[in-house]
Design brief:
Blueprint lengths: L1 H8 L3 H4 L2 H23 L6 H14 L1 H9 L6 H20 L4 H20 L13 H17 L5 H7 L2 H17 L13 H14 L12 H11 L15 H7 L5 H12 L1
Helix pairs in contact: 3-4, 3-6, 7-8, 7-9, 7-10, 8-9, 12-13
Amino acid sequence: MKFQRFEESAPNTGLESLWPASLGVIGVVVGWPLVPAMIHMVGRGGRQETVEWALYMSLLVVYPPVVWMVARGPARVSGVRLGIVALSLVAGLTYLLRQPSRFAGLVLALIAAAVTVAAFRRPANPRGHMSADSVAPLLAATFGWFCVAGLVSWTDASRWLIFRPQGLAVLLLAGACTCVGIGGRDAGERTRSGSPLDWIAVALLALFSFRTFPVIEFYHWGFYIGPIEQLREGGRLLWDTPSQYGLVSILLPAVMPGSSWESFWLFQSVIF
């Protein structure tokens, strides 16, 4: 509540509200060269997958308490928050300069973001002009779409957007769906039950979650199906049965009905 009251009264709230995400951008961009160097210092190889997991764990363990401490700061640290946003822009520029081809993908993401923000603001601004307070959502939407493009496959976000013409169409369609879902409705108009469009979207997501192909991507299925079958045959987890992905993720599908494949499909579908 303290943080919320500060955000409501602080100047430049639009840009300043981006500081938590900006802090994450800094951590990831700086982490890519820093984490391998730290791993090498202790005599390890620092392979890409190890670096990725180290970044994931740092965002899980280090990032939340740092955000909590900065968020609890008084109004006098407003400059710190704006500085974090500025540093994230520098980090993002560094990321792009390391591989100039990424600029093309960023431009496409910017186009999708501009269309999204303009459509979202149209009910409040009939002329459709982009005002000063559109800067923050424009930046957030741009980096958001850019990150989404990088998550759909193992390729770089720019390559996915440039070499797959349907990529930009998908981003525009997703932005349009977002505007339909939340555009033109204030907090008083949103109900807990949701609109018919909300329920249609939820139903489609649920239907897609229970698809039977792929049950799990590529080679990862062996790290689940094998241990599940071995547990059912009397194996002991982490003793004579390996567990690549933890304990609960193996134990829960092992007690579900059906064969190893069926129980894991049910477990994954419910999680999705």
